[in-house]
Structures are given as C-alpha cells and as structure tokens.
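Archive entry: two folds, one per protein. Generate the first.
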Amino acid sequence: MHPIEHLRYVARASGADPSMLVRETAAALAGVVRVEPAGLVPACRRLIERHLTVGPVWWLAARVLTAADPVAAARLAGVEVERDTTAAALAAALPDDITITIVGWPDLAGAGLRRRGDVEVLVGDAMGEGSILARRLDEAGTAAAVVPDAGVAAAVMVSDLVVLEASAAGPSGMLATLGSHNAAAVAAHRGVPVWAVAGVGRVLPERLWDALLQRIDQGPAEPWDRPVELVPASLLTAVIGPTGALPPDEGLAQSTCPAAPELLRAALG
C-alpha cells in the first residue's frame, strides 16, 4: 500500500484500541516521510483531527515532528507502545480479593485484570462495550458482572476500588469513557480509591493537553454526546503507568513527548 493511502486508511479507522492505532500510524508516518517529507506536518494535524481524544496519536505526532530523524522516531514510538508494561504494572499493584468497578472496555486495564483471577470486576456497560469485556474476563477466569449504565454508582458503592483508563491525560485530569466522571465522583464521596490507568503516550504535556481540551470544547458535539469526558485530577488517588503507581500530580506530569508547536494549530480544510 502506498504510504499516503496507508495514512488515509489509518485516519479513517475508528474504534481501534490506542496501542494498535499508534503502531499503524507510526508505520504510515514513516512512509510519508520517505515519499513526501513536506506532507508530514499537515498529515499529523489531520490524524489528530480524526483521533482528537486519543493521547498516543498526539504523543506520536509530537515526537515525529520534533525529531532529527522522523522515521527512526516513528519506529521507536511503535516499539515503545508494543512493549508497554502498564497492564502488568496494574496487575501487580492490585490488592488481593477485592471488588473493582470499571467502565466500558479499557484495553490496558482489561489486560491487567485478566491476569488476576482473585478479584471481582463490576463492568459498567457503556453502550454495550462492557458486556463484551465481562465475557472475556469470565473466559479468562476473572469473575465479572455487567452493570447497566444507570447502576454504575451503585456498583461503586459496593466496590473497594475504581479503575478508569485514560484515552489521554494531562495536568488537570484525564479523558475516559462517558460515565467515568460519575463513577469517580461517587467513589470520592464514599472514600473509595480511584486509579487512573495511563499507558505509554497517554499523558501529554500541558500545552498539548490544553489544546486538546480546547478543541473538544469548540467541537459540535454536546458534552453528553461525546464518547469521552474529563475526570478531574482531584478525584484520582493514583495514576498507574508503565513504572507502576504514582500520586496523581506526579503521574499526570510524566509526559514523554515535547509540546510540538506545529500541533497547536488545527488542520486546514
């Protein structure tokens, strides 16, 4: 496939987990650099417009645009995402024999929970995604039950821990599946810990994070129609990343990409 066509295919993709999306995007951008170097900046901007709430796409674009060797930077980013140890770090950090509430189908958190057969997971359905994950967890030997969206608050009240996964994060909080803010707020009120799972590339530097939030607010979708919502940092008790658990103020400042100025402007047209 020609690199430009590959990039268009990636840009059109929807619903893919962020790790797979970054691997495909990295390969596509490396091809663009080889055949049309001048197209790299607009290509990165268009990718972000199509995957606005996916932090790793911003992370990848920022690293490629600021690198002396963009092809090598793209390849390295793909490797780092492939080797992300966040799921293992979550599994290792979880206490034994607890009840956990999650929302939707978080890919890293789901992988971590599949490694722990001694916990019970209450899965907020989030428009059907949770049902699929609950079945996968059961098949892997982890007890799981689906909770309808209206029952997530009740699930939190009988849980020992809430685990939410960031599609993107920054100093002020994290973006997570719709319904996550409600779960975190109930947990905070009840004194239940809330862990944010933020894998490789999901924590952005402040300038990129602010640009992301601004574009969401300027978009046409009403807050209740968006697939993700902001969970404030004040509701979190820990951030789980590749190296393990950190306090929220530290974990949400652990960005590994520069604030590429080219990404502060939206794509034209």
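Generate the second and append.
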Amino acid sequence: MERTSSLVADESGKPLRIEGIFRDITERKRLEEKLQESEAYYRELLNSLKEGIYQCEPAEDGVFTWINQAGAEMLGYDSPSEVVGTPVKEIYVNPDDRKELIKQLEKKGTWKDFTSYCRRKNGERFVSERTCNLIRDENGKPARIQGIFRDITEK
C-alpha cells in the first residue's frame, strides 16, 4: 500500500483532520521484483561469458561505463567497478586505434572483427579482436559504444 496524507488546520492553525489517499501497489511491486530478477539473470549471464563485453562513452576521450567480469579480468582488473570510469584510450597501445574506431563507427555504425594492440592495467600488451556498435539516441546523436572483445594473443 502507498499512502499520501495531509494535515488540515483551521485559520488559527488548530488541526482539524487528516486527509489522505491510499493506493494498492501490489501489482507494481510484483513487476519491480520481476524486473530485478530479470536484471540479475542477465547480469549473471553476461558475467558468465569468457568474452569481454563493455559499454563506453562515444567520445575519443570517453570512459568505460559498464564492463562484465571477463572484460575486467582481461584488462588486468579484479572487478568491473575498478574499470568503470577509466578512459578507454588508456587500453590502446596506439592511441590512433581509438581515433580510427570512433571514425569508423560514426561512418558505419558497426565495426566487426577488427584487431588492435591493447594493454592491461600492469602495462602488459595483448592482441584484442573486437566488434563494436555505436548506439545513437532518439535525435541521432551518439549515446554510447557497446562492444565485445577477446584476447587473441595466442592465435
């Protein structure tokens, strides 16, 4: 139940009565619980994958806004929360790779199976294969980049 109440007073400020509205919110609470269960399911699914999945700001100097556990570990971090807020350009060995990605995504919207040399938190280098998509808002303005990547150094 959800309740809204107000105290009604006379001109001198003496309380006369309390007026209120009661609303049954059982269905809304059920839907919120289902949404939370669904979010937990998909978070668990994304974190169970071996590939890194991420979202970041679409600017050249944008930061990571979300990453799964496998992605964080590939980049040398213990948890996704350590990666969020990190400038994406810091993972590139060659800073021009980030510029090229932005350019390609602005032109095509998607760039599939491209490789680049990346670095982990400790500076160790690895070869990454990625597919990225540029997501635009309702006005067509770049809103975020989302992608998937894997370490192909051994290939």
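Annotation attached to the second fold: Residues 43 and 137 are 23 Å apart (CA to CA). Strands lie at 2-9, 15-23, 52-56, 64-67, 110-119, 125-136, 142-151.
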